[in-house]
Write a structure and sequence with these properties.
The chain is an alpha+beta fold. It has ten helices and four strands. It has a four-stranded mixed sheet. It is globular and about 55 Å long.
Length: 251
């Protein structure tokens, strides 16, 4: 849930975008943790999507001078899309569109996401691709850390969200919808697939300031975390093609 200051910042941002874009604007929406239960004031970014009638260069020019100021207020770079991209990009970015559809808050304009149809076949394919590519990335970043405990800890905390989001998509592929906290995602994934992820559970507690880092060597902690990520990818790889009761249908 957003804090009072973030709410005020959103109002200011929305008014400014409306003034800058006028008739070129279709909708402004908040998505991600700010629209759900995982927002952490002072840590989480404000993620917004701006829907345009047409994503012309002249429209981008109107927004560009304000990006630095918005970043200082806690905004990530806004997603900019027009109606054509919204319709034709669903098969290429099903995870991103499904995330926005399931967890967004309309700040102004038309409700263009609620009725958006996402094919679950495309969703599963991208989720599998993302799982493997993020595993490769995690291994490469470990090498780059050079054994530095602080960098390793930051790497684990930064990457955890990515793998929890992947878990959430596979929970959805089994027919479970709705807004879930990261802790609920992990619990439901463990229940569905009957595999424990104790290091991820510890990282969630550390991320929420509910637990300190254990005294053991950070490299040993990372070894176990990497094994859990590899286990996650293996589980995904062995799921039957008919994972979801809505397989090959739109959601």
């Amino acid at each position: 849930m957003l804090d009072t200051q973030s709410e005020k910042t959103l109002v200011q941002f929305t008014q400014e975008v409306r003034q800058l874009l006028a008739d070129d604007l279709v909708a402004v929406a908040l998505y991600g943790s700010g629209a759900g239960a995982n927002f952490v004031p002072g840590t989480s970014d404000l993620n917004v999507v701006i829907v345009l009638k047409e994503a012309r260069f002249e429209v981008l020019q109107k927004l560009q001078p304000r990006i630095a100021a918005w970043h200082k207020l806690g905004f990530a770079l806004p997603l900019l899309m027009d109606r054509e991209f919204l319709q034709r990009g669903r098969d290429v970015f099903p995870m991103e569109f499904h995330d926005i559809k399931e967890q967004h808050r309309l700040l102004w304009g038309e409700e263009v996401f609620r009725e958006l149809e996402i094919n679950t076949h495309h969703l599963r394919f991208q989720a599998e691709h993302e799982a493997r590519s993020k595993l490769l990335r995690l291994r490469a970043l470990y090498l780059e850390c050079g054994g530095d405990p602080q960098r390793l800890r930051a790497l684990m905390l930064d990457s955890l969200k990515t793998f929890l989001l992947l878990m959430r998509h596979f929970i959805r592929l089994r027919g479970q919808e709705g807004l879930l906290t990261y802790a609920e995602v992990l619990e439901q994934f463990v229940q569905h697939f009957q595999h424990a992820f104790p290091r991820m559970r510890q990282l969630l507690a550390i991320r929420a300031s509910q637990q300190e880092w254990p005294a053991e060597a950070t490299a040993d902690f990372f070894r176990d975390y990497l094994a859990e990520v590899q286990q996650l990818v293996s589980l995904i790889d062995h799921l039957p093609s008919g994972t979801s009761p809505a397989h090959d249908q739109s959601v």
